[in-house]
């Protein structure tokens, strides 16, 4: 995606957020739709082909939006993208809608990794720590990562906390290379 397409996608997203109220449930469905469009990039490419009729594109996307449980106002966004021959921007617009919603509602996503399984109580404590440190509500995904070697890693798009043997070994290795 070019810089001008990024700017354009962000503008579409900002306009959409300004016009269409989004609930938290809608936000979760938008995130799922974004994942879907990233996974099925060929579909977006197919829909952006100029040989396909605009009416067919709209009908296909409308059906897809219903299956993805996106809010009704997405049909207006879709119609606009189809009419302006910018259907290929749909995944990028969804990405920016997610980003803008999170900014507006003080939400941060974190990936939590630990070397051993954590119970719900420990995950809740980590979530509270992150919320306190960032001042945001925290949405997290959790997975076990044996490569950490006795440690924990908390990562968002902009922040990283890691306390593990792997990190210490990496630091020692880097200091020996100097």
Read across the widest sheet, the strand sequence of neighbours is 2-1-3-4
Give me the strand/helix succession: HHHHHHEHEEEH
Beta-strand proportion: 5-15%
Helix count?
A: 8
Q: Segments where pLDDT lies below 50 for 5+ residues?
A: none
Helix content: 55-70%
Distance between the termini: 38 Å
Please identify the structural class as seen in this structure. Answer: alpha+beta
| Global Rg | 20 Å
Residue-averaged pLDDT: 89
Query: What is the general shape?
Result: elongated
Major beta sheet summary: 4 strands, mixed
Number of strands: 4
Annotation keywords:
single chain, 178 residues, alpha+beta, 8 helices, 13% strand, elongated
Quick structural gist:
The protein is built from eight helices and four strands, in the order H-H-H-H-H-H-E-H-E-E-E-H. The two termini are 38 Å apart. With 178 residues, it is an alpha+beta fold.
Describe the structure.
By secondary structure, the protein is an alpha+beta fold. Helix content is 60%, strand content 13%. The chain contains 8 helices and 4 strands, in the order ααααααβαβββα. The protein has a 4-stranded mixed β-sheet, with helices on both faces. A hairpin with a 4-residue loop joins strand 3 and strand 4. The longest helix is centred in the N-terminal third of the chain and has 17 residues, at 3-19. It is elongated.
